[in-house]
Structure formats: structure tokens, C-alpha cells
Write a structure and sequence with these properties.
- It is a single chain.
- By secondary structure, the protein is an alpha/beta fold.
- The protein has a single domain, classed as HUPs (Rossmann fold).
- Helix content is about 35%, strand content about 10%.
- It is built from eight helices and five strands, in the order βαβαβααβααβαα.
- α2 links the parallel β2 and β3.
- The radius of gyration is 17 Å and the shape is globular.
Length: about 240
Amino acid sequence: MASPPRAVVLVSGGLDSTTTLAIAKRDGFRPYALSFRYGQRHVVELSAAREICRRTGVAEHAVVAIDLGFFGGSALTSSIPVPKGRDLAAMAGEIPLTYVPARNTIFLSYALAWAEVLGAADIFLGVNALDYSGYPDCRPEYIAAFETMANLATRAGVEGRTTLRIHTPLISLTKREIISLGLTLGVDYSQTRSCYDPTLKGEACGQCDSCQLRLKGFRENGLEDPAPYVAMRRE
């Protein structure tokens, strides 16, 4: 019997990447999980990522340390306050301060390098073009452009041995649909962490863009988010 194909899966510890990991396993891939300690203020997500990977059963989980805080320009990697209480319509209308310059390009470049070493043709990324807070590197056209570049920039691609594919199974789903799908795959969302500005105990603020979109998704499924939140901020 042939071994399952290998795939690099970007796992942040959040709701979307955890669902994406479950999808990769459902689709018969042997996942190699890749996470980053990049100077993010919500570093609690890495503890979640480690536990999620342990429970899911990945072939390997690598955590790479890079310093995106060196460049600044983001509320996630500097002292810039994280926006709170924004209107949902405003989230989709502008690129927020939580955008980290070139983050997905950098992450995908690392994933591409690891995939080539592993002999893997597949990379999974949990980006979303609907409930995505206005990030430019979550759009379908960006993913398509990176995939084209990846097949031009690798030895495996140039020699025709491998055609690299970037899978974004959540890209056209709402947060409600993502949660619904994840539940059918047995995802335990109580283990995931999505907040941009959690407390030292790891409690979500309930007011940042990520929290609001997540809470909305659970409400639309008729469910309460099982992740821990600061008291009185779940609505």
C-alpha cells in the first residue's frame, strides 16, 4: 500500500488553521505542521498549536522563530494598540492595523522550502476571503500568484518533478460555514485560540476583529464559543 502523500500545513493554533489541518487529514494527507514565533503579542496561540498538533497526530510539528517585529507596522508585533469594537462592515472595508506586512508571503516561503525538502507537492493554508478582516494576502488572486511563483522558483518545479499546489479550502467559506464543517470533522474548538490581544492567562478579549468574527460564527451556528473569554465580553 502506498504511503499517504505528504503535505505542509500552516498551523497557528487558531480556528481556521485547525480546521484546515483536519481537512488535510480527511483528504488523506500526512501532515507536517508548521508554526511561527514571529514576535506576535498573542503568542499563547503557539501553546494551542502544539496541543492541537499532538491531539491531531501530525508527522512532525516545526515551530520556526523569526522576528517580524523588526519591521514594525502592525499592532500584532509592536506597541500599537489592537483595534477593538470595530463595526463588522468596517473590517471588510479597510486594511486594519493588525495586518502584518508580508506575513503570509514569508510563511508560505518557509512552507515552500520545507515542502521541497520533504518531497511534498501540497501546502495547506487556512486563509479566508470572506470573514478575513481585509487582509490583502488572504485573497484568491494572491494565492494563485504565489502558487505560480512557487512553481517557477523551485528545483522540483523547474525540473518538472513536482507541481506545487497551495490548498485554501476555507477561502470561500464564512466563519459560520467553517465552524460547521470543522465540527463534522471532530475539531475541538475549545483548544483553539484566535484573539489578537489575550490576557496573560490566555483569555480572549472578545472585542478585537478576530474575536468578533469568531463569536459571530458560533452564534450563527446556535452555539457558544468554548474558548475562554474575559468576563462579560462574549457578546
